[in-house]
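hey so i finaly got around to running the thing on DNA-directed RNA polymerase III subunit Rpc5 from Cryomyces antarcticus. pasting the sequence first so u can double check i didnt mess up the copy paste, my clipboard has been acting weird all day
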Amino acid sequence: MAPARLPVVDDDPVTAEYDVFITPDLEEQIYLLQCPNRGYKQPYSEAAFQKPLDMRIKPKAGFIEMDVPMHVWANFDKKKGVEWGEAMRKAKDDGSSGFGLAAGFDGGAPPLKRSGRATADQNEDGSPEADVEHLLRRFDDANDKGHVMNKQTLGGQILKDEARKPIYMLGAFRGKELHLTKVDGIVQMRPQFHHIDALTRVDRATTRREREAAEPPRTTEPRAVHQTIKSTTEGDASNNQENAAAFLRAAHEEPWTKMKYHDEDTDAAYAAYHERLFVADIEAAPKLKSSMTNEQYLDAISAPRVDPSGRSKKKPLTKKQMAAIDLAEDESDVPGAEQAGPAGTAEGQAEAGAEQRDHGA
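ok and heres what it spat out for the C-alpha cells, dont ask me to read them lol
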C-alpha cells in the first residue's frame, strides 16, 4: 500500500502578477515632495482648506518653496502675526528678494530705506508698538491688506540622483500593468522661518540707521594689503569657504521661477497623471533584456564576499585532485593499507590530498 502524499503548502504564495513598464524620459522634471512635519491625514489640499497659494523653484541652485494659508481665527497669536507680517512687508518693500538659504541669506540686500512720512496704518507717534496696537484694533482690515502673517512657507533643497545611490521611481497601476517613472529628485518640505529673518533684518537696519545718524561721516583712508601663504590645511578650508560663498552668491542671484499649482482633485491633475505616468503604446514598448546571469545578478545585489579570517582566497581543488582524494579514502578502508607509508601509497596520497585541501593547490 503506497503511503499517502501530503499536500505541499506554500508559505509565500504568489497572489498577483503584473507586467512592468518603464515610462520614457520626460522633458518635465518630476520631484517627490515630502512633508515630514505633517500627518498623511492632513494634506495640503483644497479639501483640507489649505490649498497652496504659491509655488516657486530655483532649478540651478536646487530649491523649492511653497506658501500655504494659515487659519488666523483659531489657535493664532494675532500680535505675533501682526509683528511678523509687518517685518516681512517692510523687508520686501525695501529690497529684500528672499530669505534663508534658498536666497543665499540675501547677502546683497540693501539697507532698509528711511521713510520720512508716517503711513496710514501708523499712530501719531509712529512707534512700532503703536503701529502693532493700531493694526490689532483693525485686525480684519490689516489681514486683508497684507499686514498679518497669514501664510506659512515650506521649502527644501532638491536631493538629486548620485552615483551608487538608490534610484527612486513612482509606480502607477492600470489593471494588470505597473508603470514606473523615474523620480528626478526628492525634496523634504519643512517650515521656513523667513519671518524671523525679516524681523532681525529690520531691527539691524534700524539700529544701523540710528547709529549712522548720530555719528559724523567717516573719511576713507587707504590701507596696506598684506599677502600671506597658507598651509595645505588652511588652503583646503579656504577653498571650502570660497565654494560656500560662491554657492550662496549663485543662490542669491538666481531669480525664483513661479509654478502653477493644480490641486489633486482637478481635471488638469488627472490629465497630467494619465498622460505622463503611463506608457501610451504598450505593444510597441521595447522589451527589457538582462545582460547578467543569475549568479552575476545575485553578486551585484548582495554584500561583497569577505573572509572574516583575513586569509587570502584559496583556489578550489580540481576534479583530478578530488578523484585522487576519493581513491585514497577508498583504499584506506582495505585491511593492511594503514601499514603503507611512502608518499606514493594510498596513505601518502590521502595526506597529500588533505594538505592540498587545507593549503590550496
